[in-house]
Amino acid sequence: METQGRQTKEAFSRRIENLDGIIDSSLMVKEFDEALASLTAAFSAGKKLENRVLDDVAKAIIEIDDLIERKDEKASELKEIITKCIQQIRDHKAMFIKGKEITDKEKEKVGGTQSFGDELHWLETGVNQVKDKLQENTIKMRYNNLDPLLRRCLLFLFVFPGDAVISKRSIIYRWIGVGLIKPNKSQTAEQAGEQCFKMLLLSGLILPISKKHDKRPRCCIFPSSVKKMLEEVLGTKAKEVGFYFKTYDKEDLTAEDNRANDRPLSCLRATKDEQSVIVSSNPKTSELLSLFNINAQYLKCESDEFSKFKSIKVLQLGKWQIFSDLQLGKRPIFSDRHIEVADTKFLESLGTMKDLRYLSLQGISRITTLPDSLERLTNLQILDLRACHNLEALPTGIGLLKNLTHLDVSECSLLDRMPKGLSSLSGLQVLKGFIISRNITRNITSDSCRLKDLAVLKNLRKLTINIAGGTIANDDLKELTAFETLSSLTITWGQVTETLLEQKVTVTPPKSGSLHALEKLDLQCIPQHEKLNWLTPGVFPNLKKLYIRGGGLKSLNLGTNTGKWNVETLRLKYLSNLECNHWSDIENTFSSLALVEIYKCPKLIEKKLPSHHHGGTVWIKINGEGWIPVKD
């Protein structure tokens, strides 16, 4: 390239010289040479500018990371570091525009001290290159500054497409399943995963997605720029990081660029022309650590082939997508995508996967029952059956899954009872979708699990209950008295008959002080119309979050003699009959409030709420400024 440039320059100079007599060729050649020399000097200065900027930013990143590592991230110090870095960049730019980035020696070569401020159009390409290089170097530096565990946690996201939106829970479950995250003396595995997720957010290598008023993001974006960097890592250091990736497309298992001798992670992916994928194996299938369904909607799984995944730890065939459409500035559209399987017989092979820790069949249709062989998965920790709309029953031997910590059967609308074995899951921490059936009190059998049977589960922290339509379940709800370790409770009532409504239904709660550990209470479609006399600080002394959504409730218990609430977040939504006399009634009753959301509560909005508009919104309380409305 350098030789070609010199030849082009000489050819152009000769053509100018041949015009002697028509123009002053010697003067024009001199001007041409000076212009080229000027440009060369400017590019040289631009390269130096790039290096100086990168050095300054790199130093700032290291200083910030040091603060975070010492857990001493004071806002004033962070602001000082960032402000200093920004000012350094501005100073470099100002000096460059004035021509001061060019040395005296370079200026002598071009015959003067001219400024390049009027000739910066050539910089556009260079500036973009600097930005790209800066981003690339910053990403690599942030990755290299992570501790080994966080590096592996980030690498585990490589299976997802660039810029994918992934739920925090989904990420943490996968970390737990593959064995990256484990419980310790002070934290459960999920809490340890939360900490890792937070640290990756702080590193900027994954980006949070949340409403403005949410302090804890529930999902994140996996940037394509980070995925690109991880491709390089897996291509050059696959053996060092301990795993690599393979991809199923149609019937063939093909290796990616990296070919380490370690156990691979595998992702199951549909082709561009098809949405169906055939799950098959090859001689090394038994080595697979994980299998993910990235975007296949129709699965054909042969039992003989499926049974060869003997050492697999994570099997996610169900859906993971949160949004079907996510555009900046627009409200996201939640995905209702479901997955179909040609035949469910392959599930019989699950019993061969003795090392399986995480199994997700979320959103897969046509699964009516789970095989008895599931009972042999004694290492299983997380079972995700959410939105398996055809599922009619859980295995009676589910109690044999002694290591199970998380079970999600929410949105399984055909389930009408729970197996007795649930009460044997002593390590269970999260149970979502527990069913209280309409007929359970009349047709109770020895293999049915009642709510009171779960009281022996002393590790249970989160519980969601679905009460079938046509029942109030007061007798069952009274049993919540014994659930001393619950920190989060959600109760959803089904449709209530007109007969029950005429009887002025009253929901009877647990006794005073029984749920002392509860921090979040979510009541959905509550059938009671009159005020909730039992909703008092005496029953829920440590409650931080109170959500009431849907139902015919007309009044809250806003009396002055109910005691002092510690509730910080209050959400009232879809309560068309709810009224209160004045905003101050809410504020006085819940004196610790920091955030309030009121949506689709027309009679409540009519009252003098602070700065209300558009039929409802979210307010946050800022010291010295009072209540401030926040738009999502």
UniProtKB/TrEMBL annotation:
Domain spans labelled Disease resistance R13L4/SHOC-2-like LRR: 340-549
The Disease resistance protein winged helix domain, residue ranges: 159-219
InterPro entries reported in the protein's UniProt record: LRR_dom_sf, LRR_R13L4/SHOC2-like, WH-like_DNA-bd_sf, WHD_DRP
The keyword Lipid biosynthesis appears for this protein: no
Keyword terms, alphabetized: Plant defense, Repeat
Superkingdom of this protein's organism: Eukaryota
Any single GO BP term: defense response
Pfam families: LRR_14, WHD_DRP
Keyword Repressor annotated: no
Family annotation (PANTHER family): LEUCINE-RICH REPEAT-CONTAINING PROTEIN 57, OS09G0267800 PROTEIN
Protein name: Disease resistance RPP13-like protein 4
